[in-house]
Design a protein that fits this description.
Helices cover 88% and strands 0% of the residues. The protein is an all-alpha fold. 40% of the residues are buried.
Length: 200
């Protein structure tokens, strides 16, 4: 069953890298901070999958109790990475709100970002399939992160469409909102995993 976890982590690294490159292209081309932050979010998701990969590789050599504890620890680290992403959004959003720059919009950019939403939803489904029978807290964290990313990217897409009409500073506001959502969600996960580690 640990092999399923390894395959899920390797799949996540490859898929998130592809999404990162697509969003980075749009972010650089359009000068959109919210899309750039979304791209960084996918880059950090690669880090989360790398942590998961390391965990599953180590768990194969551990007994059940230490393996469960390692799983909780790795899920805790993944939540910390997500929280760092949220704080990064907040910092950059505040900077952009204070010092706005022009945003370039095109239907091509919007189409690229829109295509990443079902891609991330598909990732959540594939993670769930890998987790069938495994019931891993690590993969559950990756599923939840993928589902949340769908909402984040949808919100970012709305921002890309509305920012040119609303004004440049709105891009910073969108990044601030995204940062707040991600940080709040990660804080809940951190508390939950910390409790699991303490009570274990």
């Amino acid at each position: 069953m640990k092999k399923a976890g390894v395959f899920a982590a390797v799949f996540g690294i490859g898929a998130n890298f592809g999404l990162f490159l697509a969003k980075l292209y749009v972010a650089i081309s359009s000068a959109s901070l919210s899309i750039y932050c979304d791209a960084v979010n996918n880059l950090l998701d690669i880090g989360s999958c790398a942590v998961a990969l390391l965990a599953f590789a180590l768990m194969a050599r551990l007994k059940e109790k230490p393996a469960q504890r390692l799983q909780s620890l790795c899920a805790f680290v993944i939540e910390l990475i997500v929280a760092g992403t949220g704080l990064y959004f907040l910092y950059n959003g505040l900077q952009r709100a204070l010092y706005p720059i022009p945003i370039s919009y095109s239907y091509k950019y919007a189409a690229v970002i829109a295509a990443t939403i079902p891609a991330k939803a598909l990732m959540a489904f594939i993670y769930s399939r890998f987790n069938k029978g495994l019931n891993s807290g690590i993969i559950k964290a990756l599923v939840l992160d993928s589902v949340l990313d769908c909402g984040i990217t949808a919100f970012t897409l709305i921002g890309l469409i509305l920012v040119p009409k609303a004004g440049f500073a709105a891009d910073g506001v969108f990044a601030l909102v995204l940062g707040g959502i991600i940080t709040a969600r990660a804080a809940r996960g951190i508390i939950g995993e910390a409790r699991a580690l303490i009570n274990d």
